[in-house]
Amino acid sequence: MKKTRTKHSPAFExxxxxxxxxxxxxxxxxxxxxxxxxxxxxxxxxxxxxNAAASFESEASDDSxxxxxxxxxxxxxxxxxxxxxxxxxxxxxx
Length: 94
Prior knowledge:
Layout: H1 10-22, H2 27-34, H3 38-56, H4 58-93
Helix pairs in contact: 1-3, 2-3
């Protein structure tokens, strides 16, 4: 009989990782309580700690994304004007 991997929801993973970060219980106790392997708890804890800073960087990345979008829209406008100009010039040459 082949075992299949259990897929846990992100909310469950976050809950377990937060409990591991709090260190009120050992990783072994958490693993036993939630019936998962201790290495999984360590992995989720590491992911939480590694990605925690990203949640505070969203404002800066949002500003840069809006700025980048404005630059791209400006470039699209310039290219549209050039295309129209060249299309009209090509039509007169025929």
